[in-house]
Amino acid sequence: MSVTAILQNAISGLNASQVGIRSTSTNVTNVNNVDYARRSVSFQSNPLGGVEVSEIRRLADEFLVREGLNSNSALGTATSIAKIHDRLQSIFGNPNSENSIPGLLNGMFAEIAELQIDPTSAVRRATTLNSIQQLLTEFDQFSSSIQNVRLNADQKISSRIIEINGLIKNIYELNNAITGGASRGTDVNALIDQRQSSLTALSKLIDVRATPQAGGYVNVSTMDGLLLVNNNYTELHYDPAGAVTPDTVFPRLTLHAIDVGSGSVNPVGLAFESRLVSGEIRGLLDMRDVTLPRISQEIGELAAKLADQLNAIHSDNSAVPAPNQLIGRTVGLIGTDGHNFSGGQ
Fold first, then answer.
1. End-to-end Cα distance, the chain
2. How confident is the model over 275-291, as pLDDT tens digits?
3. Does this model's pTM top 0.85?
4. Which of 234, 71, 66 is nearest to 161 (CA)?
């Protein structure tokens, strides 16, 4: 073997070792990167002499990747619900606070009890009426605040839809880049990491399933099999409500196919809300459409029953409206007695 051949073999070995060292360095650098998968470098002898890198393999367990997406979706649901609960807690306040519903109820009952000591006191009557009015006003404010929380949830849904559409398109473009790079024999592991990062972000917003396909690309679908990304992609449409009241009917969330050749959007969309099992969007929809209206209704029922009871007590102890029948008793007086009562109205 000539000296030149020996040197070329040595250089090929050094180059291959450099690739392995670089891969190890990258693995160490990204040890805390959840979207990074460790690389393994394989070597083989070159038929013409020397050593060459045969493969840089991305080590990722498909089962763990799939379960990670599912867990991320569940986390997205819980996080969105928890944030709205925190906001509700700030609206209702600490139950021990005087401005909370329990505190205002206790204050009203305390004022009514004080009024019994001296019902003729104008100050006590005014204080009692003020505490009742304050409580009823607070009920109205709670109801208005809950509708504002529903409006905020609806606006978040709209902004998250924009994020989802961007992630879906990005996954589609990375699919094309990965398949193209793999066909040319280039290292596409960095692109696969980027795609995994987009899948992770997408799974937090909506529950998705990623199915690897030959050539390196993945199909992305809902858990019941509705495709979001394959050889083309889709986008979600949603028009948020401008204002929210207890009677607001929110627009539907729809999925539309994209013609990748022309970029046109199919105007006929598929209903999408029923496809969602978990994710931040699912949590926002459930809070907006179920939990928050139920809380608002319960507060309204509490306020209505309180008002009805106060009115009933007032009616039972008042001559207004006037009774239908006057019932008297014999006192021994006769018409000629000087009681100065004419009997007229």
1. 137
2. 999 999 999 999 999 99
3. no
4. 234
